[in-house]
Amino acid sequence: MEPGSEVMGSLRKNSLSFLETSFQGIAGSAPAGAAVATLTGAAAFALGALPLAAVLGFGVVMLNAVIIRRISLKTAGAGGYYSYIQKGLGTRAAGFSGIYYVFYQTMALCFMGLSTSVFVPALLSDAFGINIPSIMFYPIILGTLGFGFLISYAGIRLSARFSLIMAAAEIAVITVIGAVILISHPSLNTPAVFTLSDDSNGITGLLLGVLLMYTAFSGFGASTPLGEEARTPKKTIGNSVIVTVLVLGAFFIFSSYLFTVAYGPLNMFSYSQQLVPGILMIKSMIGPAAALLVSVLFINSLLTGAVIVTNSTSRVMMAMGRDGIINRRFAITSEKHRTPYFSAMFVVLIAAAVGIVSNIIMGGFNAFLFAATAATLGVLLVHAVISASLPGMERSEPQGIKISSVVMSVAAIGIFAFIFYSTFLTISYGVIAGTVLFAAFTVGNVINSITRAGRYVTDVQQNKTEQGA
Q: Which of 2, 90, 210, 243 has the highest local Cβ count within 10 Å?
């Protein structure tokens, strides 16, 4: 890189509209990928009540969205969740949670790469009879993560518009195809899937389905680190999270209904055992051309997800680097594109290394479960801390802490605790490995936070003084 081609922590102000900001969260949840493939986890437990699980899961996520909106009205910046926790619970808690955020986002990026390298070969084989050699795992995962880096590096305007167009196309095409199926086969439609009548696992299965449905919404907060690039950020960021959850909720409820009634409410366990059941169903009911189009969107969904995760993680790392919580080099941004490319490069390289090594050790699908488990456990922990931040923020305000904020925070933390507990109900090699990594990182982060607790506060104060000078 040429001398003078980089600056410290400088992003492009007022770059993003409300619509572009909202679609960061929508695209970050990889809607096409969830609809045609990864909803199988929830289906394995909720069975024919999958649409009911989608409705209840939407309610859980909306509770979190309302909490985030209340917080974002008070503070907005590139730090996202890290800044929220810093405002509500202080620098020590923010340092601990910020490092955890980087951990789970790196594992989420690894998950995106592994999803592409595991599911795409299965898709090509099962739906189109095309078999590719196993050695292609490595160029696929590197290509996915490299694509995410390049689009992210090219600037927030380009990456946001790309994400908007791609996510809108995914949702529109699958919705139209689904409507065609339901209208042309009216006998499929039934309200019974919104009850427990076709769920032989009962209320326990439904609740586990709700918990796993939560992962389909996992990228809904991707707009929160865009507070320095969005227009009128304190208003835009919170409202964008609400819109994101509304759009995703409507889409996932529709998709769950579509695939449940089309596949057969009593056949949902069989549905859950396939890697890409949605595409196979579309092929059988609409034809190969529709299946091919949805397959392209499925792959695009994972590629776009990699862009979103790279965008959000790199900006939070930049904010932490500016504050001195992590090395200041992570605050470096490109002078031309105004993107935190050093942080983005670091995250992509670590995610690629973890994906490749875990594949060598435990195989592709177990590596996929490993990354998913570690990322999910990290998400739950950080979101619980965010929920606790809302009353902390209000404590210093003239009107004091709102009762509604306490109720929402306690409810959200309780739900996260239950989701956390339920993660351990289904055990496999990949799940165990992901849990062990999460536990090891937790111990290391606690030790680091204890030994650096005083320095966190001192470094942040010193950096703010220097930046204000």
A: 210
Measured CA to CA, the distance from residue 68 to residue 39 in angstroms comes to: 25
Report CA torsion sign: 240, 242, 245, 249: negative
Environment class of residue 310 by beta-carbon count within 10 Å: exposed (0-12), middle (13-18) or buried (19+)? buried
Dihedral over Cα of 227, 230, 234, 237: its sign = negative
Residues 107 and 104: their CA atoms lie apart, in Å, by: 5
- Phi/psi of residue 44, each to 5°? -60, -25
**Residue 362 and residue 433 in contact, taking contact as beta carbons nearer than 8 Å:** yes
Write out the two tokens for 237. Answer: 């960021």
DSSP-derived 3-state class of residue 8: strand
Token digits of residue 425: 């109900």
CB 198 within 8 A of CB 47: yes
Tokens of 297: 């969107």
Looking at residue 30, its pLDDT comes to 86
The whole-angstrom separation of Cα 304 and Cα 319 is 23
Please tell me which of 42-46, 117-121, 176-180 the model is most confident about, judged by mean pLDDT.
176-180
Collect all residues with Cβ–Cβ distance below 8 Å to 325 and sequence separation of at least 6: 94, 95, 98, 99, 456, 459, 460
Tokens of 443: 């111990």
Based on the number of CB atoms within 10 Å of its own CB, is 80 exposed (0-12), middle (13-18) or buried (19 or more)?
buried
pLDDT, one tens digit per residue, over 248-283 is 999 999 999 999 999 999 999 898 888 788 888 898
**Residue ranges of the alpha helices (H) in 129-232?**
137-153, 156-184, 202-213
Q: Which CATH superfamily is domain 6-460 in?
A: Amino acid/polyamine transporter I (1.20.1740.10)
User: How far apart, in whole angstroms, are the C-alpha atoms of residue 378 and residue 399?
Assistant: 33
Instruction: Supply 159's token pair.
Output: 């990456």
Q: What is the dihedral of CA 259, 261, 262, 266, to 10 degrees?
A: 100
Q: In angstroms, rounded to a whole number, what is the distance separating the alpha carbons of residues 249 and 57?
A: 8
- Band of the pLDDT at 3, cuts 50, 70, 90? very low
Separation of first and last alpha carbons in the chain: 28
pTM of the model: 0.87
